[in-house]
Each structure stands twice: as structure tokens, then as C-alpha cells.
């Protein structure tokens, strides 16, 4: 599964917003500022923020000195909610939810369907466990480890002795 630029850019822009806007009434952040700092197209950010605003994840402030601020505190804004707000699927399977056609052209489920379905569940649970505040405060590393696991030098988990 590869997260598209839509999901990655939405999360990046929201983290930037969380890091730079302390109080919306005093300092709303313009999309132009985010676009410049994060090297993201302004028109693309406008499309993403329209979706984020509809889901209540951001608020817009109109007029001179206007811009955007978080719709709720960074500690309450989950990364999974941001990704889902911009219509980014969090699925590792080739099947669509509720689709009777299955993964194959033969209309059945592939042999590894349950594996990818469970991976999708873990990805969602991980992203749901991480808030904007966690990312801003760099409090993300180590969240994916199991109780008795550590990440090996090769990048994969290994069981701690």
C-alpha cells in the first residue's frame, strides 16, 4: 500500500498548521505560507483544505489577516481522520469493502486477502493512535512496536530477549 500525495500533503499541511498556529484569533495561517514552507502547490492545498474544512478539521478566518487554524486542538486531531477527510483509502487489499467480486478476476478472494485486510486494520489503528501534537512534538517513533519487540538494524521487528 502506498499513501498518495493527497494523504501525505494533507497530513504535512496540517502538521505545519499545528506547529505554526498557536491561537487562531491572533495568528491564522495562510495557505500561501504553508505552500511556501512545505513546497506544495497552493491550488492543491486549496482543494485539500476545502475537504478538511467540511470535516471540521480546520476553520477558515476571512478578511485581512485571515487564513486557517485547527478546527480542534492538535491533541485531539488524529492523523487517520486527516487522511480519511481527503478521501484517501487506508486499505492494503485490492478488494473494495462490501464488493462481492473479490480480488481475482475469478471473483474470489485471493489467498492473502486476510493478511492484507489485517495490515489495513493495523495501519488504521496506528494512524488513529497518532495525533497532530504527537507529530509536532516528534513523539511518533516506537509506537509501531509490539510489547516485546524492538526494531532491528535491518528495519524489521525482532523479539527482545
Map the helices and strands.
Layout: H1 5-20, H2 31-38, H3 42-54, E1 58-61, E2 67-70, H4 79-85, H5 113-129, H6 132-136, E3 149-151, E4 157-159
Antiparallel strand pairs: 1-2, 3-4
Helix pairs in contact: 1-2, 1-3, 1-4
Summarize the structure.
By secondary structure, the chain is mainly α. The protein is built from six helices and four strands, in the order αααββαααββ.
Strand order, largest beta sheet: 1-2
Question: What is the CATH top level name of the largest domain?
Answer: Mainly Alpha
Radius of gyration: 19 Å
> What distance lies between the first and last C-alpha atoms, to the nearest angstrom?
31 Å
Beta-strand segment tally: 4
What do we call the CATH homologous superfamily of the largest domain?
Winged helix-like DNA-binding domain superfamily/Winged helix DNA-binding domain
Q: What summary fits the major beta sheet? A: 2 strands, antiparallel
Order of helical and strand elements = HHHEEHHHEE
Q: Tell me the β content.
A: 5-15%
Q: How many structural domains are formed by the residues?
A: 2
Structural class: mainly alpha
Compute the average pLDDT: 82
Continuous helix count:
6
The CATH topology of the largest domain is given as Arc Repressor Mutant, subunit A
- What is the CATH architecture term of the largest domain? Orthogonal Bundle
Summarize the amount of helix as a percent range: 40-55%
Question: Poorly predicted ranges (pLDDT <50, ≥5 residues)?
Answer: none
Amino acid at each position: 500500500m502506498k499513501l498518495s500525495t493527497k494523504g501525505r500533503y494533507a497530513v504535512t499541511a496540517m502538521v505545519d498548521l499545528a506547529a505554526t498556529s498557536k491561537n487562531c484569533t491572533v495568528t491564522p495561517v495562510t495557505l500561501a505560507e504553508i505552500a511556501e514552507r512545505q513546497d506544495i502547490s497552493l491550488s492543491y492545498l486549496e482543494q485539500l483544505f476545502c475537504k478538511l474544512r467540511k470535516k471540521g478539521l480546520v476553520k477558515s478566518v476571512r478578511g485581512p489577516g485571515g487564513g486557517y487554524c485547527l478546527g480542534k486542538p492538535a491533541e485531539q486531531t488524529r492523523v487517520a481522520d486527516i487522511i480519511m477527510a481527503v478521501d484517501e483509502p487506508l486499505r492494503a487489499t485490492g478488494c473494495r469493502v462490501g464488493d462481492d467480486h473479490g480480488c481475482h478476476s475469478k471473483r474470489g478472494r485471493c489467498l492473502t486477502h486476510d493478511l492484507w485486510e489485517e495490515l489495513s486494520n493495523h495501519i488504521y489503528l496506528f494512524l488513529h493512535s497518532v495525533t497532530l501534537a504527537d507529530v509536532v512534538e516528534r513523539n511518533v517513533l516506537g509506537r509501531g512496536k509490539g510489547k516485546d519487540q524492538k526494531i532491528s538494524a535491518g528495519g524489521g521487528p525482532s523479539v527482545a530477549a
